């Protein structure tokens, strides 16, 4: 479904990604793990054409996306939940979720915002609260709910657990798994929290200083403790 083929990405003159390749199939759930500054967010922004200058090929269903702008990529069914969540502070939880209709694929029937909300039990009692009055974990759930409300084919979730309490991380893992399974959305997840990434995905890419240094199943990573020590400082 998504194919990233030997991309380089730059901010100004500084090259951040070096020949990165990965694929995500239909309904597949895949993680990109790596330390701070490894290039995970740059990779996600490159896929959406939302910042870095990119060289190389990014294709969706076999078609090169070329210079296609971000909003059109979203309308193909690619939905990015950025690291900073971008919740609207001055509208309610339910209205935040309703905003998804603006980025949805044309012709796709969307669930009512109330039905999307019901998929996230923690948010149900908060539906009328302003986005700016939520905790970090609650905001993260709203951001995921809003992404799912647009019926994406692939959700890109950038470090969702950063700064969240363990109990919220567990709830988020349950919700992400359930919504991906029930809606049929694929998942590309960037994470440093290996427990969370393992709960939500079947295989992973390990990125370090802008290069993919390993890809395989979680079991393959377990069989390589040296990789964890070298690239994840575990
Ligand atoms: N807008 C920017 N301009 C210049 N350099 C940037 C910019 N954004 C990120 N970088 C640099 O690119 C490199 C990769 O950053 P990136 O945010 O992609 O890493 P990351 O793996 O997502 O890290 P983190 O887990 O800390 O978010 C870092 O060295 C960072 O300083």
Automatic annotation (TrEMBL):
Gene3D superfamilies: P-loop containing nucleotide triphosphate hydrolases. GO terms for molecular function: ATP binding; ATP hydrolysis activity; branched-chain amino acid transmembrane transporter activity. SMART domains: AAA (SM00382). The keyword Transport applies. CDD domains: ABC_TM1139_LivF_branched. Keywords: Amino-acid transport, ATP-binding, Nucleotide-binding, Transport. InterPro entries: AAA+_ATPase, ABC_transporter-like_ATP-bd, ABC_transporter-like_CS, BCAA_Transport_ATP-bd_LivF, P-loop_NTPase. The keyword Hydrolase does not apply. Pfam families: ABC_tran. Residues 2-234 form the ABC transporter domain. GO terms for biological process: L-amino acid transport. It comes from the Bacteria. Belongs to the ABC transporter superfamily. This is Branched-chain amino acid ABC transporter ATP-binding protein.
């Amino acid at each position: 479904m998504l194919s990233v083929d030997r991309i380089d990405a730059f901010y100004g003159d500084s090259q951040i990604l070096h020949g990165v390749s990965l694929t995500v199939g239909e309904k597949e759930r895949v993680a990109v793990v790596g330390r701070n500054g490894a290039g995970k967010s740059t990779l996600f922004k490159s896929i959406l054409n939302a910042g870095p200058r990119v060289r190389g090929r990014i294709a969706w269903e076999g078609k090169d996306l070329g210079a296609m702008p971000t909003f059109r990529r979203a309308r193909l069914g690619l939905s990015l939940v950025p690291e900073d969540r971008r919740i609207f502070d001055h509208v309610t939880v339910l209205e935040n979720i309703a905003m998804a209709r603006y980025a949805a694929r044309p012709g796709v029937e969307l669930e009512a915002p109330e039905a999307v909300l019901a998929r996230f039990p923690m948010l149900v009692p908060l539906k009328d609260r302003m986005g700016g009055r939520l905790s970090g974990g609650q905001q993260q759930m709203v951001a995921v709910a809003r992404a799912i409300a647009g019926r994406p084919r692939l959700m890109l979730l950038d470090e969702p657990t950063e700064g969240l309490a363990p109990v919220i991380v567990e709830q988020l893992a349950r919700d992400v798994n359930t919504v991906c399974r029930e809606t049929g959305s694929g998942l590309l997840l960037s994470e440093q929290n290996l427990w969370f990434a393992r709960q939500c995905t079947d295989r992973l890419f390990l990125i370090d200083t802008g290069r993919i240094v390993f890809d395989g199943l979680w079991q393959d990573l377990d069989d390589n403790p040296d990789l964890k020590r070298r690239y994840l400082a575990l």
